[in-house]
Specification:
The chain is built from two helices and five strands. It is an alpha+beta fold. A five-stranded mixed beta sheet has the order 4-3-2-1-5. It is globular, with a radius of gyration of 16 Å. The protein starts with 8 loop residues before the first strand and ends in a 19-residue tail after the last helix.
Length: 118
Amino acid sequence: MHPGCRIDQVFLCRDPVDFRKSIGGLSVLVEQALGLDPFGSALYVFINRDRNKIKVLYWHRNGFCLWLKRLEAEKFAWPRDAGGATQGVTLQQFEWLLEGFDVWQKPPHKTLHFSSVS
């Protein structure tokens, strides 16, 4: 979102939010409703009911930043599983989401961990 801004996590808020909310309302939502730290090195991503707008809130050094993307056609893919208030994704998955890919329909290959080759 901002060059030089360290991002360790991306949290998608599963439920649509009222897009009249701005920095104040969204930061309170992150802290109180989602139970997360709005000052952390994370992106907090919100979607509107029509799934054609995304707002991203994050803290950068000395203030909040708010970023908005509106699709003129199509809709954003969004997590369907009801497993908590947020869904964590990687930065790469978030970029794919912004490009229109459904990361839940075709997940990436699983990472394998081996202790030896023989």
